[in-house]
Specification:
By secondary structure, this protein is α/β, with parallel strands linked by helices. It has 2 domains: about 140 residues, Rossmann fold (3-Layer(aba) Sandwich), CATH 3.40.50.2300; about 55 residues, Arc Repressor Mutant, subunit A (Orthogonal Bundle). It is about 45% helix and about 15% strand. Helix 2 packs parallel to helix 3, helix 7 crosses helix 9 and helix 8 crosses helix 9. The radius of gyration is 20 Å and the shape is elongated. The two termini are about 35 Å apart.
Length: about 220
């Protein structure tokens, strides 16, 4: 299947709230629009699986689905079905996350406060014009004002945090980066202060939430 103009557009809904999926399905059905829900998932792994199995024209994906790494999920969906248009659904603006998702080729980022008419219009835009992206975000996000309180970590501090995200010990991090264990500790303490974190896990979570690193799991 492709994401270009078509008489019927097959859609997969991926959201861990069944009531939300029910609501979107009902909206699409009652609107008389040419959109057909062909699959649903409540998990990120399920979304990737359905993308590969069903090859839908479009997949609506909740940004916070089952607390997984949404960037990794989008990448997985794009690998499983490159022609599927991925549209993100979010409760909040997230300029940092949006910047991380754009290079993956998402086709839209819509707030869950979006009205049903706006949702249908967005999907129609994607259906008719495969080159356009649809964004429903605040002006501050569009202008990139989400970085005002973004901490500045050095390259080495980011490398240490990224390795800490892999659950490596200070000694293992030091060997990987060819620095002493005490230097690793110094970079960690500096990162904790900049991120206002109180532990390694907290620092990794905060850095990932700010888009400073991609978390692969701990």
């Amino acid at each position: 299947m492709t994401s270009g103009p078509t008489d019927v557009m097959d859609i997969v809904l991926a959201d861990d709230h069944s009531l939300f999926r029910d609501g979107v399905r009902r909206i699409l059905l009652d609107s008389g629009s040419p959109f057909r829900v062909v699959g649903e998932s409540s998990s990120s792994s399920g979304a990737v699986r359905l993308a590969g199995e069903l090859r839908p024209h479009l997949l609506l994906l909740d940004v916070q689905i089952d607390a997984g790494d949404v960037v990794a999920t989008v990448a997985g969906i794009r690998r499983a079905s490159p022609d599927t248009a991925v549209v993100m659904l979010s409760m909040h603006d997230s300029p940092d996350l949006l910047r991380r998702l754009l290079p993956l080729g998402i086709r839209g980022y819509l707030l869950k406060s979006t009205g049903w008419r706006e949702l249908i219009a967005a999907l129609e835009t994607i259906r008719h014009d495969p080159e356009r992206m649809v964004l429903s975000i605040s002006a501050s996000s569009a202008l990139g004002r989400g970085d005002e309180h973004r901490p500045e970590l050095s390259r080495r501090e980011l490398e240490v945090i990224e390795l800490a995200a892999l659950a490596l010990s200070n000694r293992q991090i030091g060997k990987r980066l060819n620095i002493t264990e005490s230097t690793v500790k110094r970079h960690l303490h500096s990162s904790f202060a900049k991120l206002q974190a109180n532990s390694r896990i907290d620092a990794v979570n905060r850095a990932a939430a700010l888009g400073l690193i991609v978390r692969h799991g701990m």
